[in-house]
Design a protein that fits this description.
It is a single chain. The protein has one domain: Porin (Beta Barrel), CATH 2.40.160.20. The chain is of the alpha+beta class. It is built from one helix and nine strands, in the order αβββββββββ.
Length: 197
Protein backbone atom coordinates (compact mmCIF):
# COMPACT_ATOMS: atom_id res chain seq x y z
CA UNK A 1 0.00 0.00 0.00
CA UNK A 2 2.76 2.45 0.98
CA UNK A 3 4.73 1.63 -2.20
CA UNK A 4 1.72 2.39 -4.38
CA UNK A 5 1.13 5.64 -2.48
CA UNK A 6 4.73 6.83 -2.99
CA UNK A 7 4.66 5.86 -6.68
CA UNK A 8 1.36 7.65 -7.17
CA UNK A 9 2.62 10.82 -5.47
CA UNK A 10 5.80 10.85 -7.59
CA UNK A 11 3.93 10.39 -10.85
CA UNK A 12 1.24 12.91 -9.85
CA UNK A 13 3.86 15.57 -9.07
CA UNK A 14 5.48 15.16 -12.47
CA UNK A 15 2.15 14.98 -14.31
CA UNK A 16 1.22 18.33 -12.75
CA UNK A 17 4.64 19.88 -13.31
CA UNK A 18 4.90 18.91 -16.99
CA UNK A 19 1.92 20.79 -18.48
CA UNK A 20 2.19 23.79 -16.15
CA UNK A 21 5.96 24.03 -16.60
CA UNK A 22 5.77 23.58 -20.35
CA UNK A 23 3.09 26.26 -20.76
CA UNK A 24 5.05 28.68 -18.56
CA UNK A 25 8.32 27.86 -20.34
CA UNK A 26 6.80 28.46 -23.79
CA UNK A 27 5.55 31.86 -22.68
CA UNK A 28 8.89 32.73 -21.13
CA UNK A 29 10.84 31.67 -24.22
CA UNK A 30 8.72 33.72 -26.61
CA UNK A 31 8.84 36.83 -24.40
CA UNK A 32 12.55 36.57 -23.68
CA UNK A 33 13.51 35.98 -27.29
CA UNK A 34 11.69 39.15 -28.26
CA UNK A 35 13.81 41.03 -25.77
CA UNK A 36 17.07 39.39 -26.88
CA UNK A 37 17.42 36.97 -23.94
CA UNK A 38 19.26 33.64 -24.17
CA UNK A 39 16.27 31.56 -22.97
CA UNK A 40 15.67 28.37 -24.93
CA UNK A 41 14.22 24.90 -24.76
CA UNK A 42 16.57 21.92 -24.82
CA UNK A 43 16.86 18.14 -24.90
CA UNK A 44 19.64 16.31 -23.06
CA UNK A 45 20.88 12.73 -23.46
CA UNK A 46 23.59 11.06 -21.39
CA UNK A 47 25.34 7.69 -21.56
CA UNK A 48 27.81 6.35 -19.03
CA UNK A 49 28.38 4.09 -16.04
CA UNK A 50 27.17 4.04 -12.47
CA UNK A 51 27.88 2.35 -9.14
CA UNK A 52 24.86 1.35 -7.05
CA UNK A 53 24.68 0.01 -3.51
CA UNK A 54 22.00 -0.63 -0.89
CA UNK A 55 22.29 0.34 2.75
CA UNK A 56 19.96 -0.55 5.60
CA UNK A 57 20.04 0.21 9.33
CA UNK A 58 23.40 1.98 9.08
CA UNK A 59 25.14 -0.87 7.22
CA UNK A 60 26.17 -0.45 3.61
CA UNK A 61 26.35 -3.36 1.20
CA UNK A 62 28.88 -3.76 -1.62
CA UNK A 63 28.55 -1.52 -4.66
CA UNK A 64 27.97 -2.85 -8.16
CA UNK A 65 28.93 -1.18 -11.43
CA UNK A 66 26.64 -1.07 -14.42
CA UNK A 67 25.70 1.10 -17.36
CA UNK A 68 23.57 4.20 -17.02
CA UNK A 69 21.39 6.37 -19.24
CA UNK A 70 19.70 9.66 -18.58
CA UNK A 71 17.54 12.02 -20.62
CA UNK A 72 15.82 15.32 -19.95
CA UNK A 73 13.63 17.94 -21.57
CA UNK A 74 13.60 21.45 -20.19
CA UNK A 75 14.23 25.14 -20.57
CA UNK A 76 17.10 27.53 -19.89
CA UNK A 77 15.48 30.63 -18.40
CA UNK A 78 18.58 32.82 -18.25
CA UNK A 79 22.33 32.56 -18.53
CA UNK A 80 22.38 31.17 -14.96
CA UNK A 81 19.35 28.87 -14.52
CA UNK A 82 18.31 25.70 -16.34
CA UNK A 83 15.28 23.56 -15.44
CA UNK A 84 14.91 19.88 -16.43
CA UNK A 85 11.11 19.83 -16.44
CA UNK A 86 11.30 16.04 -16.77
CA UNK A 87 14.49 14.08 -16.10
CA UNK A 88 14.68 10.31 -16.59
CA UNK A 89 17.47 8.11 -15.27
CA UNK A 90 18.11 4.39 -15.81
CA UNK A 91 20.80 2.12 -14.33
CA UNK A 92 21.26 -1.62 -14.90
CA UNK A 93 23.69 -3.70 -12.85
CA UNK A 94 24.29 -7.30 -11.80
CA UNK A 95 25.40 -8.41 -8.35
CA UNK A 96 27.62 -11.53 -8.38
CA UNK A 97 25.52 -14.68 -8.12
CA UNK A 98 22.23 -12.86 -8.60
CA UNK A 99 19.97 -11.77 -11.40
CA UNK A 100 20.29 -8.37 -12.96
CA UNK A 101 18.72 -5.42 -11.20
CA UNK A 102 17.66 -2.02 -12.49
CA UNK A 103 16.77 1.40 -11.22
CA UNK A 104 14.50 3.90 -12.99
CA UNK A 105 14.22 7.52 -11.85
CA UNK A 106 11.48 10.00 -12.78
CA UNK A 107 12.47 13.42 -11.46
CA UNK A 108 12.60 17.14 -12.06
CA UNK A 109 15.86 19.09 -11.60
CA UNK A 110 17.21 22.64 -11.40
CA UNK A 111 20.75 23.50 -12.53
CA UNK A 112 22.68 26.68 -11.71
CA UNK A 113 25.77 27.67 -13.67
CA UNK A 114 27.03 29.58 -16.68
CA UNK A 115 24.79 28.74 -19.67
CA UNK A 116 25.62 31.78 -21.80
CA UNK A 117 25.98 30.89 -25.47
CA UNK A 118 28.82 33.39 -25.77
CA UNK A 119 30.92 31.22 -23.41
CA UNK A 120 32.55 28.02 -24.63
CA UNK A 121 32.62 26.32 -21.20
CA UNK A 122 29.53 25.88 -19.00
CA UNK A 123 30.21 24.65 -15.44
CA UNK A 124 27.07 23.90 -13.40
CA UNK A 125 25.68 22.27 -10.25
CA UNK A 126 22.14 21.19 -9.43
CA UNK A 127 19.64 19.10 -7.51
CA UNK A 128 16.68 16.86 -8.40
CA UNK A 129 13.53 15.55 -6.76
CA UNK A 130 11.00 12.85 -7.68
CA UNK A 131 10.54 9.09 -7.39
CA UNK A 132 12.49 5.93 -8.23
CA UNK A 133 11.62 2.34 -9.12
CA UNK A 134 13.98 -0.50 -8.15
CA UNK A 135 13.52 -3.90 -9.78
CA UNK A 136 15.34 -7.15 -8.97
CA UNK A 137 14.02 -10.49 -10.21
CA UNK A 138 10.27 -10.37 -9.42
CA UNK A 139 10.61 -7.73 -6.69
CA UNK A 140 9.63 -4.17 -7.57
CA UNK A 141 9.86 -1.29 -5.11
CA UNK A 142 8.97 2.39 -5.48
CA UNK A 143 10.26 5.18 -3.29
CA UNK A 144 10.92 8.88 -2.88
CA UNK A 145 14.15 9.97 -4.59
CA UNK A 146 16.43 12.98 -4.67
CA UNK A 147 19.74 13.75 -6.27
CA UNK A 148 22.59 16.24 -6.68
CA UNK A 149 25.20 16.65 -9.35
CA UNK A 150 27.68 18.76 -11.27
CA UNK A 151 28.97 18.94 -14.80
CA UNK A 152 30.90 20.85 -17.42
CA UNK A 153 29.73 21.40 -20.99
CA UNK A 154 31.65 22.59 -24.03
CA UNK A 155 29.63 24.64 -26.56
CA UNK A 156 30.41 22.95 -29.90
CA UNK A 157 27.92 24.96 -31.98
CA UNK A 158 25.21 27.50 -31.13
CA UNK A 159 22.74 24.63 -30.60
CA UNK A 160 24.97 21.72 -29.48
CA UNK A 161 26.98 21.25 -26.27
CA UNK A 162 28.59 18.19 -24.70
CA UNK A 163 30.57 17.29 -21.63
CA UNK A 164 30.93 15.10 -18.52
CA UNK A 165 28.39 14.99 -15.70
CA UNK A 166 28.42 13.39 -12.26
CA UNK A 167 25.11 12.63 -10.53
CA UNK A 168 24.40 11.18 -7.10
CA UNK A 169 20.89 9.77 -6.62
CA UNK A 170 19.36 8.32 -3.47
CA UNK A 171 16.06 6.43 -3.33
CA UNK A 172 14.36 5.82 0.01
CA UNK A 173 12.71 2.40 -0.19
CA UNK A 174 10.53 0.61 2.37
CA UNK A 175 10.30 -3.08 1.40
CA UNK A 176 7.38 -5.08 2.79
CA UNK A 177 8.42 -6.77 6.02
CA UNK A 178 11.94 -5.37 5.86
CA UNK A 179 13.96 -2.43 7.17
CA UNK A 180 14.11 0.96 5.50
CA UNK A 181 16.60 0.82 2.58
CA UNK A 182 18.64 3.56 0.91
CA UNK A 183 19.49 2.83 -2.72
CA UNK A 184 22.47 5.03 -3.64
CA UNK A 185 23.76 5.50 -7.19
CA UNK A 186 26.86 7.40 -8.32
CA UNK A 187 26.61 7.94 -12.08
CA UNK A 188 29.16 9.34 -14.54
CA UNK A 189 27.91 10.21 -18.02
CA UNK A 190 28.87 12.01 -21.19
CA UNK A 191 25.95 14.36 -21.86
CA UNK A 192 24.86 15.88 -25.16
CA UNK A 193 22.53 18.91 -25.09
CA UNK A 194 20.55 20.22 -28.07
CA UNK A 195 19.12 23.74 -27.65
CA UNK A 196 16.86 25.62 -30.04
CA UNK A 197 18.27 28.85 -31.49
Amino acid sequence: MKKNFVATIGVLILVLILPVGSAWAQGAIATDYDSGSNSSGYLQLGLGAGRTNRSAEGESGPGYWGFGLDAAAGVTFSERVRWDVVMLGYNQFTAPGSTSASRFDLQTAVWIGNFSRTSKLHPYIGASLGSARFSEADDVEWGFAWGAGAGLEYQVTSSLALGPRYMFRQALLEPSGGPHVNLNTHQFTLSIVWSND
